[in-house]
Write a structure and sequence with these properties.
single chain; 7-stranded antiparallel beta sheet; 5-stranded mixed beta sheet
């Protein structure tokens, strides 16, 4: 009896687990012939249709008749199953790597996935992703005539046999060691394998056994991690883009092994993906760096603009303040000029009258002389201040006896301020030494300070002058009055030209705003200094205003 087994039965249409690859590889027909005995007709045939490799149907028949399936069919089926499993693993690794790149995962994690996944699907003992850091970026272009100065950095590594250093520094997995020890790197010039990969083409490098290293490489010395002594079989695929070498993807085995075409193709595909990921990361990093640089430049520009704006604002405020001071000065100057001129013109008109008594004529002449002197003094103050600022003043150093000078000032003070009821209280130590300085300047300083105190002192009060000698090199003169005070925000400005306290012009307080400025300039030429304070009196609305002058006992001749 002959039994025909055909794969085209109805049952075969339901066997969806068989892949098209298996259909192509398997025979379309399986036929089993059995010899008939005497009790059966030789012409009878029993057809049995079944799906390919349906062992649930064929094995009972084979067992009952004592037959065996051909070994080559079983090997083919097993080979096809292994191939399908490998392809599935390859696709899973590629999919996982693609998703990591699409999700913008960190580059270090992508390289780690590539190293670990490649080692597992290819069943190798070591897998690494090597990156190249070029000393000169222009040398990253592949050249067969030049070995660039560059350092190879191990960015990702998986090893079945970790070194002692790695065991203490990197985490281990259940099937191997995954990690990179910081500082693991080497120069390309120290590795003949990397030199060959840099100067050769872009094809993958295959070494099936250790002897091939010496036969292929011009320089047989390699980096310890790529040494053929411990890993005789190696597969290295470059990471590159437009002939620019970025690094290498390498896998190694600890025994001789003949690399398969599908393994090479897998590594080339993974290398292409890693090259894209590296370029994407580097480009993003460059863009971020450029953005940060431009942001820093913009921030610096904004800060500079803010500083310039602040400087401009201060300059505008200063100009406004100067304009205001100039307006105040012009107003004051106009008042100080017009008042004497008005008196002078009136006196001149009265003097023209023929019937004017001699007594009145003398009085008008006195007014005319006084107002003329006041005008001359104002002009002289302006000229003196200008000379001091241009350092065109010649100092005449001579001995100055302060008590005598103060006594002379007292008489003029009494004449000027007697009608206001002011008195001058002098406190001078008898052992005060003489000063060696410019007498005219000191007299002008004291006169201006006493005059200023008399203007702002309340009627019937005393202006005190206290002289002391704190050391052997200087004397201190304090002029104090009680009356209208100086606001705290105006104290630093009172020694400026044309500066007067608020409302002084409106209150008809005489002055041009040049006196204290003249005092400051004169003291600078005498190597001295002046400060001012104004404190409210306790329980009163008045202020105690004090000017403190410090003068050296001897004026430096060179300074003079």
């Amino acid at each position: 009896m002959q039994v025909n087994v055909s794969p085209f039965s109805a049952e075969s249409q339901d066997q969806s687990s068989v892949t098209p690859m298996e259909h192509a590889a398997e025979p379309n027909h399986v036929s089993l012939d059995f010899a008939s005995d005497d009790s059966h007709s030789t012409d009878s045939q029993v057809p049995l249709k079944m799906s390919p490799y349906d062992t649930s149907v064929i094995e009972p028949i084979v067992t009952s008749e004592g037959l065996t399936r051909p070994d080559k069919d079983q090997e083919l089926v097993a080979s096809l199953h292994n191939q399908v499993e490998r392809q599935a693993k390859y696709q899973a690794l590629i999919r996982r790597l693609t998703m990591a790149i699409q999700n913008s995962t960190e580059l270090s994690e992508i390289l780690k996935i590539a190293a670990e996944g490649t080692a597992q699907v290819l069943n190798v003992d070591q897998a690494m992703v090597l990156r190249i850091r070029f000393w000169d970026p222009r040398h990253s272009i592949r050249s067969s005539e030049r070995i660039p100065k560059a350092r190879v950095i191990i960015d990702a590594k998986w090893s079945r046999f970790p070194t002692e250093v790695e065991e203490n520094t990197a985490p281990a997995t259940s099937s191997g060691h995954n990690g990179v020890v910081p500082g693991q790197s080497f120069w390309i010039s120290d590795c003949g394998l990397c030199q060959h990969a840099m100067t050769g083409g872009s094809q993958a490098l295959l070494f099936n056994q250790a002897e091939q290293f010496a036969e292929t490489l011009k320089k047989p010395e390699t980096a310890p991690l790529l040494s053929p002594k411990s890993m005789p079989s190696l597969l290295m695929v470059p990471l590159e883009s437009k002939n620019k070498v970025l690094g290498f993807l390498t896998v190694q085995k600890s025994q001789d092994y003949e690399w398969q075409i599908e393994e090479v193709e897998l590594l080339e595909l993974l290398a292409a993906q890693l090259s894209s990921a590296v370029l994407q990361t580097e480009t993003l990093r460059q863009v971020e760096s450029l953005v940060e640089e431009r942001t820093a430049q913009l921030q610096q520009s904004l800060e500079l603009q803010a500083k310039l704006y602040e400087i401009t604002r201060k300059q505008i405020e200063k100009l406004r303040e100067m304009n205001q001071r100039m307006d105040e000065f012009l107003s004051t100057l106009s008042h100080e000029l017009r008042t004497p001129l008005t008196s002078m013109m009136m006196a001149i008109r009265m003097l023209r009258e023929a019937s004017l008594p001699e007594e009145k004529r003398s009085r008008y002449l006195e007014i005319l002389e006084k107002q003329c002197a006041q005008e001359t003094s104002l002009v002289n103050d302006l000229l003196a201040l200008q000379e001091l600022e241009t350092k065109q003043v010649a100092m005449q150093v001579q001995e100055v006896h302060l008590p005598e000078m103060f006594e002379n000032l007292r008489s003029s003070f009494d004449q000027r301020w007697g009608m206001k009821g002011l008195t001058l209280d002098l406190k001078i130590p008898p052992e005060l030494p003489q000063l060696s300085t410019d007498a005219a300047s000191v007299k002008r300083i004291l006169l201006e300070l006493i005059t200023n105190a008399g203007k702002y002192a309340d009627p019937s009060t005393a202006i005190s002058i206290n002289v002391s000698q704190p050391d052997h090199h200087s004397v201190v003169i304090q002029v104090t009055n009680f009356g209208v005070g100086i606001e705290a925000d105006e104290l630093p400005l009172i020694f400026d030209k044309f500066r007067r306290c608020q409302g002084m012009t409106q209150q008809a307080v005489p002055g041009t705003g040049l006196g204290l400025a003249l005092v400051k300039s004169l003291l600078q030429h005498l190597n001295g200094d002046v400060t001012a304070t104004s404190e409210p009196c306790e329980g009163k609305s008045d202020h105690e205003t004090r000017f403190t002058v410090t003068l050296p006992l001897a004026l430096d001749a060179a300074k003079a």
